[in-house]
Amino acid sequence: MGISLEKPKLKIMKKRGCVLFFLLMTGLAVSVSAQESVQGKKIKSIVVFQEKYDMLITRKYKELEQNFDSRGNLLEEIAYKQGKVTKHFKYQYDSENNKIKEEEFDPSGRMIESSEYKYENGLRVEKIVYDPNKKIKSKKVYQYTTF
């Protein structure tokens, strides 16, 4: 008898998991389209919360926080797991809305690494990754072939 009661619970939990996954994906899709306006207003920030159901207890956690500039560029992104910061990024853009700088921080707020991007004719041509002491960790060069 206990097994037959567990199966419906499992199905309900799976359905809730699917719904939460859908909501998360919807939240990410919203962030991608943040340059669009909502009823004539531009999006300044998005906060995604997740609710977890365990028996009779419901827990609500902040899952993702994103902040945008007036042009819709993502300025800051903070990911959480069970309400605690797991990833934190900050971004900067040029006047053409090209990402020119990316900084990654650990949960305590210390910089892990930073990346700088260079562009020519609207195309990314270089990415340099630095450690916290501004020592180069890696460099990528982008080459394009045109018709």
Explain what this protein looks like in three dimensions:
By secondary structure, this protein is an alpha+beta fold. The chain has one domain (2-141). The chain is 21% helix and 51% strand. The strands form 2 sheets. An 8-stranded antiparallel sheet has the order 3-4-5-6-7-8-9-10. The protein has a two-stranded antiparallel sheet with strand order 1-2. A hairpin with a 5-residue loop joins strand 6 and strand 7 (99-105). The termini are far apart. 4% of the residues are buried. The model is unreliable at 1-6 and 18-33 (pLDDT under 50).
With strands numbered from the N-terminus, the spatial order across the biggest sheet is: 3-4-5-6-7-8-9-10
Note the main sheet. 8 strands, antiparallel
- Tell me the count of domains: 1
Query: What is the number of E strands?
Result: 10
| Secondary-structure content class | alpha+beta
Strand fraction equals over 45%
Helical content stands at: 10-25%
Quickly count the helices.
Answer: 1
Termini separation: 69 Å
The poorly predicted ranges are: 1-6, 18-33
Radius of gyration: 20 Å
- Give the ordered list of helices and strands: HEEEEEEEEEE
pLDDT averaged over residues:
82
Shape: extended
